[in-house]
DNA sequence: AATGAATGAGGGTTCATTCAT
DNA sequence: GATGAATGAACCCTCATTCAT
């Protein structure tokens, strides 16, 4: 009921504690996966008793939810950073390099994969990641529409398809990096950029 | 004390039993994930006692490994199916449609994600998927080289990069489909094909 | 280090606080039982912090003890209400209807059962309810003796047995109502009254 | 699903194991109550590992359910034992003495109270005891109807009320014995018998 | 070859109680 | 007087694995 959720606009102390847990959980999940990391281990990593974690999070799943949310915010701010640029497409394409580095961080990817795996069998998490994906995807669609300028406008479905393919490129590369961490980044970047340009301008 | 592994060139009976287990495990893993599916459930699905499974597999991890291996073979055969086609690039691009359907099968993706998650923390599985990824990737690279025809030849790294991007497109879309199963397939396919063409012919 | 118990003849404020806790605890115990109601829930119901409850009660058991005590007083006052009536037996028998309603209140019974269950394993509570039962039972015996009037006097044991049977009728019906809340009250009342009359006048 | 329940018409070994658990649980619940007795303690008492108990019972509640059922069977056989007697009422009244001893066994009562307490907050157990009470009550009603002979027949509700009052007498005495184990049995028995006769013949 | 009874460590979670503020 | 953050042992339950048959 009012276990978690009560920690809302509270003092920074509580907020700090929460983040302490999240940081610890993040690290533990990275190393052992969602199921592999026990609450006991997380508690130890957070320098906190097991029971006390439950003051800040209703259960283990709530911790994952918070971490997913964190990740969404990160992606969102990345997308937003190109907004309002004068030559939008060029900005997006240039940004691709930065995103590429981001995406090759195996730590982050491992966590994302962990979450996706969980989603396959936990409907609650599935719903969560579906929802959390909508905002960035919509934003990406808007950016694409915005940048069309002279070119003919696109239907909603066309916009969606383009956003999906761009997203797929990055998420796909993320997976590739997980499979084999030494991707030839330098050779890949221009290919990526060409693909993005193609999808945007086509 | 007869560990598993001794079942090598044995009668087809044993082999059939093994496959019985694998089929059951596959189905169970699909539904509940590696950690979610218990040995008891797998045994029941395989019409076999729990204990008897241990005659054919040393432990649960060995089953997982076998399933991963299976998955690799599936991907390989997919790529091989375009080999030797007269107009190779066109064949690959046409094949994209089929692959797209394949890739949007959330069941298969769930398993792939499961494997990747497992790899993040189980070095044995990590090694396995790294190795298992090399063959298809190399094959893809060869196909790309083979199809260049008139165009200038590419360095190994260039080939690798192209193969990675094509792979990323498909694996990325696979992830996208997992996040949101109702992708606009019709609008996505031509975008994908253009991207592939671009990467191949560039 | 001021344990509870020191709160004796103190200001009405402290007393009010104590009762606040008891009222809350009563409500919570009714709904969830002694073990089901957590201190946290009781504290919330009492509009008080968890820790502060420990200023007024040494521990949870002390709260339970206080509630048991309360219950005893309730039963006592019920019996006293017929005392001194001119035609005592008739008064008792008439009262039976009221008592019946009282007894069919499943909320009260739930608490009584809770107390009895606790008594089976907590010697302190056992002692408490044994003592607390003596007064009403003795009172009931006196009433019976008092009402014999013309009839021959009864030995202590005879009186005790009669009181026990009357008590058993009511407590038994209480249990019956708990097992099945829709007792045929109308048909039961005259039977009860006849039984009581029989036991009293025999 | 098919955790428990599978142990049905199986070999006596499984049946014996089940009873081993029930006996242990019975003893533990008696001593510490349903919530007080941990599965670990029950397991130790049953000379069995914790996990193995779950081969025979789906969960702790299922153990209680089985014990409740056991008790019902006991009561039923008690009621049945007078069936078909030539002078039915006399037989029932004579049986009262035996039942009285039964009812004064505080061990059994403690368990019954435990179950009732649990029922107050666990709807599943509530349903269970409601159901389990119906059969004996119905049987008792039938016996009463059967024994009326010359006397005018009774409506269903009248029968029910009479059965309830008889049941209340015994269950009430059970509670009395729990509150104070040294009831004056000798003096109580004739009172009980008179009450039963009254209720039956009225 | 085949069974499934048996183990016990470890999982997530709850809760009475304490104590610094 | 009053708070609620903090503890940690104990709860029920699950599961990979072993072994007598």
Automatic annotation (TrEMBL), chains A, B, C, D:
InterPro entries per UniProt: BetI_C, Homeodomain-like_sf, HTH-type_TetR-like_transc_reg, HTH_TetR, Tet_transcr_reg_TetR-rel_C_sf
Q: Which intervals hold domain HTH tetR-type? A: 15-75
Residue ranges: DNA binding? 38-57
* Alphabetized GO MF terms: DNA-binding transcription factor activity; transcription cis-regulatory region binding
Keywords, in A-Z order: DNA-binding, Repressor, Transcription, Transcription regulation
Does the record carry Repressor as a key word? yes
Please identify the protein, giving its name as recorded: TetR/AcrR family transcriptional regulator
The species this protein was found in: Chitiniphilus eburneus
Taxon lineage: Bacteria, Pseudomonadati, Pseudomonadota, Betaproteobacteria, Neisseriales
